[in-house]
Amino acid sequence: MGLRGNQKLNSIMQSIYTGLIFIAIAILIRFFPNLLAGYNNLSQRERENAIANGLPKFASIVFVIMGLIVIAGYFLAIWLGKPSLSNGISILTTLIGVVFIIVFGNWFTKERVR
Predict the structure, then answer these.
(1) Terminus-to-terminus CA distance in the chain, angstroms?
(2) 5 vs 106, which has greater pLDDT?
(3) What is the arithmetic mean of pLDDT over 1-26?
(4) Which of 77, 37, 79, 41 is closest to 56 using CA atoms?
(5) Long-range contacts: 35-42, Cβ < 8 Å, 24+?
(6) How far, CA to CA in Å, does 98 sit from each of 1, 60, 66, 68, 91?
(7) Residue 113: what pLDDT?
(8) What's the domain range around 79?
């Protein structure tokens, strides 16, 4: 296996590891919601609202989707014949996912009428 083969293998592993890290973060957030940025700064009432409204579940679902998109993005890039595209997919997925969690996550701390 030459230098190009090693680069291709590293690219595979990088995308797969990134996707698996996102999925691991999702599992951790589901069981330890205080890992979410800003969660510890919430008042007790806002924390209760966040738990009742499903903030940890929402964040974990978004992270799982991000992980699956990154992993699938690598295979899509290979299928299209542009393996370097997988790095762009990883970065774009991370940026959009984090913005999505920040924008919509704030909604979960508000008290909802049921």
Answers:
(1) 61
(2) 106
(3) 75
(4) 37
(5) 36/105, 42/109
(6) 37, 12, 9, 15, 11
(7) 47
(8) 8-109
How far apart (Å, rounded) are the C-alpha atoms in residues 63 and 57?
10
Give CA–CA dist 99/63, Å, rounded: 12
Q: Is 1 within a domain? A: no
Is 80 among the domain residues?
yes
Count of domains observed in the chain: 1
Structure tokens at 111: 């008290």
Q: Tell me whether residue 87 is in a domain.
A: yes
Tens of pLDDT, residues 40-63: 787 888 888 788 888 888 889 999
pLDDT greater at residue 71 or residue 102: 71
The rounded distance, in Å, linking the Cα atoms of 65 and 59 is 10
Q: Tokens standing for 64?
A: 């799982």
How far apart (Å, rounded) are the C-alpha atoms in residues 40 and 26?
A: 18
- Which amino acid is residue 55, in one-letter code? L
For residue 35, tell me if it sits in a domain. yes
